[in-house]
């Protein structure tokens, strides 16, 4: 091994150690979830945009897979025809569990170890789709986002009796459904009949080119059996108004429901009766039934939790400041959805995904919290002398596996109209890449890799490589990253109309030609972005080596500047004394 190769190997080892120690330390497993204050899950953020709330008429839903140790791999599942009498195997899929790469990638191991022994009848044809931890979009532009919302403790069911978990439900919906309503009916019906469990309360953003829904599902306790004759889950869904935007940051979002309004609400038959049975709702009090108050009540606001529970308020305030929803408003009192002051573009939604409370008192990069280089990832809260100090829980956090923005458009054929914009790793240092609904394959590098083994063949590691080198001198390096994002991410968004025009012309000649064209484009562009991020990581390593700035073109180096306030803080904290001035001889 050459000395250069040895140094690079050492650098990779340090990278792995740093990521595990610094970014992995906040992960605590409880019911397979990232649990924050008061047992509230803090795993994912979802944004839903109705077609009349977007600048171009598209429906958009997002997902941030905030975990820190979960599988990040993506797969494309092709469409398939099935013989009469065929069955679909049902698997239990743990959202968190992974295996070492030398044993097998997650989805290979699920097929080996996750089979429940239970099958359901297969349908004649299953649709093509892409999935990560969950299904994200199929060939008919059915799209999902996910957020764990929790439920009343006595409702949980981790026994093997219920056959369906949230991941399995999304995969079946991807395979069998074309619209959001169909998906909700399928997932709800299967859960009622065969039971839902293992996961806690879950929310799915369910969208198609015409509408977006919030679907929430809860277990019904560990004593449920199919022989009971009762539904094996309780669920409810509410439609987001076309001209509204809604959000879900790990807390139940559906409040009062109107079951007679079938245009905007769907629910299991036990939606109210189960709450009465469990003494979670008393109709004798004369109050209307409220889904979240009964099944997943939470307390607090952005203000009284030091923004640990501030994402919901923050997103509402960003898109609709005219609503004047204060940070002190209890989250349970915030509206289901809101009409944005300005319609949102894809770039606007991506910006929301990258939000870190910039410009507010909750900004984690401000003052000493961010250090001399304004790093928003240092301060996560702590305890001193028995007192707890919360760090703001941002939409954009450093422990993200990947994030998605699914775009659905009804004026284009499905293979062209649906796009999943995927970024691996932390939003602020990554790059969103398009995967069209008509794509028949994705890069192999998307389907391999894990947190504990550096792998240059894995796409995710290219983005972690950049992220690692950005953390050191964040305020400097993030500007380099933004330049790369402007070139590659904004470049793809700006190029999309021309790509889609060509695809549409091909689709009119032969839909197969459009699918082939979009598949080639999706894969080629992704490979170019991945190569660019490896290159960017190398450049950052050179440019900010030894806490200096190395200008490769001019072959000069200079010192990094640190702010005066930080120097003064060091002087005060460490009790430093200035050098005595020497008296000059007359």
Describe this entry's structure for a reader.
The chain is built from 13 helices and 24 strands. By secondary structure, the protein is of the alpha+beta class. The chain has one domain (8-298, 403-534). The strands form 8 sheets. Strands 16-3-4-20-21-22 form a 6-stranded antiparallel sheet. Mean pLDDT is 92; it is low at 1-38.
Compact description:
This protein is of the alpha+beta class. The protein is 31% helix and 19% strand.
Indicate the percent of residues in helices.
Answer: 25-40%
Contiguous low-pLDDT stretches (5 residues minimum) are: 1-38
Strand order within the widest beta sheet = 16-3-4-20-21-22
Number of domains: 1
Proportion in β-strands: 15-25%
What is the number of E strands?
A: 24
Reported for the largest beta sheet, the result is: 6 strands, antiparallel
**Coarse morphology:** globular
For the record, give the distance between the C-alpha atoms at the N and C termini, rounded to a whole number: 64 Å
Class inferred from helices and paired strands: alpha+beta
Number of helices: 13
> What is the mean predicted local confidence, pLDDT?
92
Radius of gyration over C-alpha positions, nearest whole angstrom: 25 Å
